[in-house]
Amino acid sequence: MSSKEPPEVSERSHLKVFLPRKLVECLPKCPVLPKEQLRWNTNEEIASYLITFEKHDEWLSCSPKTRPQNGSVILYNRKKVKYRKDGYCWKKRKDGKTTREDHMKLKVQGVECLYGCYVHSSIVPTFHRRCYWLLQNPDIVLVHYLNVPAMEECGRPCAPRLCSPP
């Protein structure tokens, strides 16, 4: 963000989001958060959902979903909901204790403003969970579950399998 460009400020009782004016002006405000998206969202779509949510309290989920369906798109407050406890088995690091997550910063309109966290199913290699949040507001996270289309040998689509309880 350049010093010539003052940040756009949006305040809520528990949130304060600072975004470059360039982003606020170019991103459309979303009227709805899709419950299901059977493709990965673009960086622009993700940013748009994350900056629009504060006008839609009903978008935030107050409790973690257990084994959300393929295509599920869910918004959580990271400070209030343990969204990673979703009932799926995710690939572990070599130590076997922690989930192996890939992390990266993403750009929208050339501005680095999103953080992404990707994890793969340990059972079905085509099933993924992606989590995104604004760098300037890490409290609100957009979580997307997607089974990238793949076919089993018999011609049926692959489906994620459930973990057995410990």
Automatic annotation (TrEMBL):
Biological source species: bird metagenome
GO BP annotations, alphabetical order: regulation of transcription by RNA polymerase II
Single GO molecular function: transcription coregulator activity
Cellular-component GO terms for this entry: nucleus
PROSITE patterns referenced in this protein's UniProt entry, alphabetically: CG_1 (PS51437)
Pfam families: CG-1
UniProt-recorded name of the protein: Calmodulin-binding transcription activator 2
Signal peptide stretch: none
Keyword terms of this UniProt record: Transcription
UniProt key word Transcription: yes
CG-1 domain residues: 29-154
